[in-house]
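Researcher: Structure prediction, please.
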Amino acid sequence: MVSRNSIIEVDPLTAQALADHAAGLGLSVPEFLRRQFVGADDSTPIVDVDAWLDELSEGSERLPPLPTDFSTKDIYADHD
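Model: Predicted structure follows.
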């Protein structure tokens, strides 16, 4: 379990993307993360992230694999 005042190391691009996303929502990074994982919006808090991710991925083993050259261009092929 992560303590309340933990340091999480991420690469610089991820850190910047997180900061930009939080700022876009008018939040600091700590506030954004707290809302995501503590349930500040009256949602059920995610107590065990690993269990939540396992639950989220249930059944995905039956999905066909993506092509090796799959990219975001495939997702947004119909957008300009």
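Model: Helices lie at 12-24, 29-38, 49-57, 72-75.
Researcher: Thanks, that helps.
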